[in-house]
Amino acid sequence: MKRTTFLLVMVVTLACVAGFTAIISRQAAAQEAAPIFVKKIPDGYRDWKVVSVAHEAGDLNDIRAVLGNDIAIKAYRDGKLPFPEGAIVGRIAWSHVASEENNKTFGREQSFVAGSPTDAYLQFMVKDSKKYAATGGWGYSSFDKDGKPTDEAAMKNCFPCHQAIKDRDFIFTKYAP
Amino acid sequence: MKRTTFLLVMVVTLACVAGFTAIISRQAAAQEAAPIFVKKIPDGYRDWKVVSVAHEAGDLNDIRAVLGNDIAIKAYRDGKLPFPEGAIVGRIAWSHVASEENNKTFGREQSFVAGSPTDAYLQFMVKDSKKYAATGGWGYSSFDKDGKPTDEAAMKNCFPCHQAIKDRDFIFTKYAP
Fold first, then answer.
1. Which chain B residues are Cβ-neighbours of A175 within 8 angstroms?
2. Is B82 left (phi over 0), alpha (psi -120 to 50) or beta?
3. DSSP states of A157-169 as a string?
4. Beta bridge pairs of residue B96
5. Spans of chain A below 70 pLDDT
6. Cβ(B112)–Cβ(A57) under 8 Å?
7. Strand, coil or helix: B125
8. Could you tell me which of A67, A65, A120 has the C-alpha nearest to residue B63?
9. Inter-chain contact B114–A53, Cβ cutoff 8 Å?
10. Is the alpha carbon torsion for B51, B163, B143, B119 positive or negative?
11. What ipTM describes this predicted complex?
12. How far apart are CA B177 and CA B170, in angstroms?
C-alpha cells in the first residue's frame, strides 16, 4: 500500500510538472510570436494631418513632421487619452539642410529646409491594445529611405524609452496649435 | 468760319482731355482698390497636407510647416507649374524651443519642438491670376497669433522677395518626399 501510494504520488507529480512545462512553453512561444513590431508602412500616411514639427540636432541632424491618421488627430484635438483603437501617429524625418536660396533672399544665414529622407525616414505607432498589449498597446515600426523595416534588435529600444511618458499614453509629441 | 472752326477744335480738344482724364483716374482708382493683400484666413487650413517643413534660425527663431490645399498639393505632386487657379500655399510658424523632456529621454541636448505661435504665425499665398495680376497672380496674406492681418506697409515686401523665384511661380518651398 505504501509503495502504491508512493508511485501514485510520483505519477501525479510528474504529470503536473509535464503539464506545467507545456503551459509555460506555450506561453513563451505565444510571446515570441506576438507582433511587437509593425512591418508595413500605413497606406496614405503622406496625406495625414499635421500634429507638430520638430528638429533633432546632433547626430540625427533632421527636421521632422509628426502626422496622425484621422482617429489620432481627432483624439489629439479632443484632448482624449488614451488614444482609441486604430489611432496611428507617424513621423517623417528629412535631413536638416541649409537653404542657400533662402539665405540669399533673406540676406543672412538663417534658413534650414527638409532635404532627403534620413536613415530612419519613417516611424509609426499603431494603437491596438490587444495585439500590442506587451508594449503598452502600441505597435512600433521604423523604415529607412527605401522602406526597409529597422532590425528587430534596434526596435526593442522603442518601448522602454516611451515608458517615460506613460501618462500621455506613450506619445511624446504634443499637438501644435 | 475761321472762328467757328477754332471753337469746334477747342470743344473737341477739351472733350478729349476730359475723357482721357476720366479714364486715367478710373484706372488709378481701380489699381488702388485692387486687392493686393488677402485679409481672411482660409477655412480649414489646419487640415491641409504637408508640403514641407523648415527652420528659420536667427531673429525669427521658428520652426514651420508649409501646407497646401488640395489644388496646390496636386500641382506639387504632379510637378505642374504655374500653380492652377485656386491653389493656396500656407505656412504655420511656431517658436523653436528646446524640449527638456525629449533631451532627458535621449540623454543629450538635441531636441527642438514647436512652441507657441510666433508674431508672424500664419502666411498664405492665394492663386488668382486676374485678381492678383499686379503681384504675379498671387495674393499674399500674413496674420499674427491673434489672427490680426499684418500691416499693409510690411506686406509690400512680399512680392519683391518672391520675384527671385519667378521660374517656380514665386513659391520658395519645394515638396518634401
1. none
2. beta
3. THHHHHGGGGGGT
4. B114
5. 1-35
6. yes
7. strand
8. A65
9. yes
10. positive
11. 0.81
12. 20
What is the C-alpha separation between A148 and A142, in angstroms, rounded? Answer: 8
Q: Give, rounded to a whole angstrom, the gap between the first and last alpha carbons of chain A.
A: 82
* pLDDT for residue B158 is more than 80: yes
Q: Is A95 on the interface with B (CB under 8 A)?
A: no
CA pair distance A1, B73, nearest whole angstrom: 88
Task: Report the C-alpha gap between A171 and A37 in whole angstroms.
Answer: 16
Peptide bond into A160 cis (omega under 30): no
The answer, for A8 touching chain B at a CB cutoff of 8 Å, is no
Structure-block grid coordinates of residue B130: 486676374
Nearest by CB to B65, from A55, A59, A65: name it.
A65
Is residue A72 within 8 A of residue A52, CB to CB? The reply is no
Instruction: Give 3-state DSSP helix, strand, coil % of chain A, rounded to 5.
Output: 40, 30, 30
Distance CA A85, CA A45 (A): 17
Judged by a CB distance cut-off of 8 A, whether residue A46 touches chain B is yes
DSSP string, A46-57: GGSEEEEEEEE-
Q: Which residue of B has its CA nearest to A172?
A: B102
Given a cut of 90, whether residue B111 has pLDDT beyond it is: yes
Q: Among A98, A65, A89, which Cα is nearest to B57's?
A: A98
> Which pLDDT tens digit goes with each residue over B58-104?
999 999 999 999 999 999 999 999 999 999 999 999 999 999 999 99
Is B110 within 8 Å of A164 when comparing Cβ atoms? no
**Which grid cell sits at A163?**
515608458
Of B50, B57, B102, the CB nearest to A50: B50
